[in-house]
């Protein structure tokens, strides 16, 4: 299997059964995401970003169309633990220690035990000293960081991150935005990030897809040709600011009508 699989979406759409009529979450989408790249999905709340990610993760079947990752279906990739997800609600096993949860990410991916790597990941996400604690003894932000470490522990080919930093304070978020990218870049994973932060999308990704209000369609497809690593100089550059403005303008052009936004 290619370590950097391309993702192909051909006519992929998703509707959910609703009380009165079906809820159309994702309109038919045709898309190729290049292997080894990080793509950010941004768009108004409820537009279908998480649904799109869940379809690619094989956690929901599409109502129409077909998704292939390299040569496999999402289900095949998931079943052999080639993909890892870190979602906003962390979903750690409550009876396992933090270290046990992170090590499980590696075991489930059928990778050899590597306690040194687990400790290193724990230190990277700022959880050293909490190895023996249970998830319930951590704050929401700490649980999120543990979920990111668990996802990375399996060295996945496809890494899916759904607002992974939503419950993390601004300084920690900034540190993780600096220290995590080299880690997943080094592992060569293809990755998709859902975020509400325009600056985070520009800082982390190679390409940004701005989605329309529900049902999600691609409103703008913006490449991010900034050099890496993206340290303070890149973040202070005119090119960085211009990209943030371009993404913000695209979001503004594709808001919900005021009557819907107010509901
Ligand atoms: N399992 C489900 N059953 C019914 N409707 C669903 C289901 N999952 C999502 N939806 C609906 O699909 C739409 C898109 O939801 P989704 O969570 O993908 O949006 P999002 O863009 O990730 O939102 P946010 O930015 O607020 O997290 C919403 O209207 C939501 O209510």
TrEMBL record:
Q: Which GO terms describe its molecular function?
A: ATP binding; ATP hydrolysis activity
Q: Which CDD domains match?
A: ABC_NrtD_SsuB_transporters
Which controlled-vocabulary keywords does the entry list? Answer: ATP-binding, Nucleotide-binding, Transport
Chain ranges of the ABC transporter domain: 7-238
Q: Which InterPro entries match?
A: AAA+_ATPase (IPR003593), ABC_transporter-like_ATP-bd (IPR003439), ABC_transporter-like_CS (IPR017871), ABC_transporter_ATP-bind (IPR050166), P-loop_NTPase (IPR027417)
Q: Which SUPFAM superfamilies does the annotation name?
A: P-loop containing nucleoside triphosphate hydrolases
Family, per entry = Belongs to the ABC transporter superfamily.
Q: What is this protein called?
A: NitT/TauT family transport system ATP-binding protein
Organism, by scientific name, is Salipiger thiooxidans
Lineage here is: Bacteria, Pseudomonadati, Pseudomonadota, Alphaproteobacteria, Rhodobacterales
């Amino acid at each position: 299997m290619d370590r950097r699989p391309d993702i192909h979406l051909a006519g992929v759409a998703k509707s959910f059964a609703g009380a009165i009529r079906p809820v159309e979450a994702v309109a038919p989408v045709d898309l190729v995401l290049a292997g080894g790249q990080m793509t950010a999905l941004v768009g108004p709340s409820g537009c279908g970003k998480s649904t799109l990610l869940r379809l690619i993760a094989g956690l929901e079947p599409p109502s129409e169309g077909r998704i292939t990752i390299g040569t496999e279906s999402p289900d095949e990739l998931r079943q052999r633990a080639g993909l890892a997800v870190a979602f906003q609600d962390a979903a750690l096993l409550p009876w396992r220690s933090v270290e046990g949860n992170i090590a499980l990410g590696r075991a489930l991916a059928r990778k050899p035990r590597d306690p040194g790597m687990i400790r290193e990941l724990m230190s990277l996400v700022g959880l050293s000293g909490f190895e023996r604690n249970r998830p319930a003894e951590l704050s929401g932000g700490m649980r999120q960081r543990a979920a990111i470490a668990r996802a990375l522990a399996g060295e996945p080919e496809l890494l899916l991150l759904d607002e992974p930093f939503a419950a993390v304070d601004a300084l920690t978020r900034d540190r993780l935005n600096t220290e995590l990218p080299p880690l997943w870049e080094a592992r060569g994973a293809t990755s998709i990030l859902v975020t509400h932060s325009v600056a985070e999308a520009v800082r982390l990704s190679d390409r940004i897809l701005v989605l329309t209000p529900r049902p999600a369609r691609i409103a703008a497809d913006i490449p991010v040709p900034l050099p890496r690593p993206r340290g303070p100089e890149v973040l202070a550059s005119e090119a960085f600011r211009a990209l943030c403005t371009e993404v913000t303008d695209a979001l503004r052009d594709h808001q919900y009508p005021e009557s819907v936004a107010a509901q």
